[in-house]
Amino acid sequence: MNRWISLMVSKHAFLTGVLLVNACGVVSCGNSDTPILSVKHVIKKFDNATRLQGQVSSKDKPIKAGHIKVTDSEGQLIVSTVLQDSNHYQVDIPANTDLPVILRFYPELNSPEAESLLAVVIDPTITRYDLSPLTTAIAKKAEALGGYTRANLVMAAESMVSVPDANKTSTGFRGDPTTQYGGWH
Questions:
Q1: How many CB atoms are located within 10 Å of the residue 57 CB?
Q2: Fewer C-beta within 10 Å: the chain N or C terminus?
Q3: How many CB atoms lie within 10 A of CB 34?
Q4: pLDDT by residue (tens digit) across 49-76?
Q5: Long-range pairs of 78-85 with CB within 8 A, sequence gap ≥ 24
């Protein structure tokens, strides 16, 4: 038993030494000219011309009139389109457009849907983006968290959905689980 313990201690000491040597290579062990940590930020972009499409809707119905403007993160217009008697839109994004791009819906002046809507594009492989009050809330929350990054959009989206406290069906039944799921009762 003592031999096993000493073997484990020596393995632990060896691994700790390896980690320290590797850490010195990353942190530079006293060389003030080398940065402590370097994080590479990869800018994603649309490598090819890409068609984005989706639907525009309020909380309870499709919105069939208004303008959609696609801008870069600096607010520069990339492309725009107009909804006419349909809540479906499509826009063609030019090749080499950096992400994120922001889709903004503006209602017609006389439209009862007075709010503007938005969605954020951060992945060049996803081409369907609906615009709704939910996508707007997610984008605004992500911006408040520090910007339109994947991590912020995921956190914002997760905070917008609710998960039930108990395992229930859609009717809220909390009775005998064997009868709830078609059991033998």
A1: 20
A2: N
A3: 12
A4: 999 999 999 989 999 999 999 999 999 9
A5: 83/56
